[in-house]
Amino acid sequence: MADATMQEIKSQPSTAQQAPASAPAALAASAAAPAASQKKSAAPRKRTAPKSKSVVVKAKRKESTARAYLKPGKGMIRVNGQNINSLEQDYIRKMILEPFEVSSMAKDVANKTDIKVNVKGGGISSQMQAVRGAIAKGIVALSNNEVIKQELMNYDRSMLVDDTRRVEPKKFRGPKARSRFQTSYR
Q: Domain 55-156, what architecture?
């Protein structure tokens, strides 16, 4: 069966054999088309570099995820659209600004950049630590300076490396992951 179909295909004339008398005109038209496309691609397109260097980084802590957007600016820091100076708790502000206090070079980089952080999930403490990590990673990525990275690593490694620990899921026969219900013998 397959041999018969192959013979039929071989016996059919090709498109070049079936071409009408106006074939030279069609060939000339097809030859002109690539020449036209070559004229368009003859002038190389100049690529321009982006005007400003911006960085997007993310950090996680427990169930919190923070994304930081850093771009050249006046040194404004916003967390979820709110200015860092308008945060109510003082310890949260101090913890978020901790990467700048560790290194004077990091503070210089931060004074020249606008930092916008979006954070979601988890509680207040884990969100604060995720924001701190995202800002520290962003400063290292933006400055591309090994000295800043080493200073932050020596101070607190969790600023640059995400904590992979997660809450263990609850099992049956107990109120939590590892504990078991109390047994009564009487």
A: 2-Layer Sandwich (3.30)
- Could you tell me which residues are beta bridge partners of residue 71? 114
d(CA 39, CA 122): 58
Q: Where are the alpha helices (DSSP H) in the chain?
A: 2-11, 23-41, 90-96, 98-102, 104-111, 124-143, 146-155
Confidence of residue 79 (pLDDT cuts 50, 70, 90): very high
Query: What are the tokens at 141?
Result: 């990525």
Answer yes or no: are the C-beta atoms of 102 and 136 closer than 8 Å.
no
Closest by CA position to 106, among listed 160, 180, 164, 182: 160
Q: How far apart are CA 141 and CA 53, in angstroms?
A: 11
pLDDT recorded at residue 49 = 45
Other Cβ atoms less than 10 A from the Cβ of 172: the count is 5
What digits encode the pLDDT tens for the residues 88-99? 889 999 999 999
CA distance 159 to 102: 11
Tracing tokens 């013979």 back to the chain, one arrives at 7
Strand partners, 112: none
Segments making up each domain of the chain, as ranges: 55-156
Residue 155: count other Cβ atoms within 10 Å of its Cβ: 16
| Average pLDDT of the chain, as a whole number | 82
pLDDT of 35 > 90? The answer is: no
In whole angstroms, give the CA distance from residue 158 to residue 172: 33
